[in-house]
Amino acid sequence: MAKKLYFMYGLDPAKVQEAESKGYLVRDVSMYRDGDSIELCDEAAGEVPEPYKQFVRQDEAVSDTGKNAEGSSTPNTVKELNEALLKLGVEIPPAAKKAELLALYQQHTQSQNAGDGEQNDHGAE
User: Fold this and answer.
1) Greatest distance between any 2 Cα atoms in the chain
2) Which of 1, 5, 53, 87 is the most buried (most CB within 10 A)?
3) What are the helix (H) ranges across the chain?
4) pTM for the complete prediction?
5) What pLDDT is stored for residue 116 in this prediction?
């Protein structure tokens, strides 16, 4: 049987019951801290912390709000990731899974940020 985790802020009894009825084990996002070990699972849903995003199903959003736990606007759905990658001019591999798209997005946004830092350093000389 697959281990499925559902992350949420606050444990609203109705939402917990709904998630459990769909076979999820419920976890409180506010209990997760950067650097914590991750609990291995087959699937993650809800307000998923960054290290668990690799387990999010390709066809689901990471959160109900469209924002991650930090509230940033990082693309969370496959559609949003595809759109963001196209805007960045990144070639998208055919049949890429969500984890691959997210890695590409992070790689290209980090490389752009690093490039911006280099330009600022050279401008200060």
Assistant:
1) 61
2) 5
3) 13-21, 78-87, 98-124
4) 0.48
5) 55
Q: What residues in the chain have per-residue pLDDT under 70?
A: 58-73, 111-125
**β-bridge pairing 4-8 and 43-46:** parallel
- State how far the alpha carbon of 12 is from the alpha carbons of 16, 98, 104, 113, in Å: 6, 28, 35, 38
pLDDT tens for each residue of 86-103: 888 888 888 888 888 888
Rounded Cα distance, 11 and 80, in Å:
28
The DSSP result for 66-99, as a single string, is SS-TT------SHHHHHHHHHHTTPPPPTT--HH
Give the burial class of 54: count Cβ atoms within 10 A of its Cβ; 0-12 exposed, 13-18 middle, 19 or more buried.
Answer: middle
Tokens (6 digits) for 106: 């992070």
